[in-house]
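Possible race condition, two jobs.
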Amino acid sequence: MRDIPRNELLDSIAQGWTVRRKDWAEGLVFCLHAYKPKGSTVIFLDWAELVHQDDWEGEPPEPRLRNDNQTLSVAVAYLKDGAAFIRRKNWDGFHGLSMKDILASDWEVWE
């Protein structure tokens, strides 16, 4: 968990972070899964704490696979649209793009 200043709390929640008060018992979290159809909102807090307390910590969301089996040009278009990163399915590290990579259609888009 990372410390979150109170003035950055709402921005963190809007970005999908899971946040909690540092002194809360394990499992009592405030998380907001915005724009996720299967997600839900779980709230265990008094709104006064949200405004007045400055002892918050949280974790950013894990990267999620958005699309797979894409061509490189389509994957790059997703990058311009806000995706976090793109990669080929079976890459074991980056060694530069070969012609085989450029022509491949097994690119993944992660957000």
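Job #2 (started ~2 s after job #1):
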Amino acid sequence: MLAMIFLRAIRQIIDPPDPNIPRPEFDVEIYKANGQKVNGRVVCTSSNWANNTINLKFIESGQIRKFKACLMTRFNGKEVML
């Protein structure tokens, strides 16, 4: 059986409400709107939950990219549930 995590729980982990809590690194798999799969080790640099978007910095390349949070399919090896 595959482990699962709700997107709401992920929000609390990657973008803690308390600014004194450091943002953790995590593994992610996201499918872009065009169907392209993007995965890697990232850290959340900012989020806009009203627009359902997150900015993720890829640890290996240092690149920052914006994604729709609802397109996340895996978080630290767990299937993401909306």
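The chain has a mean pLDDT of 93.
Logs attached separately.
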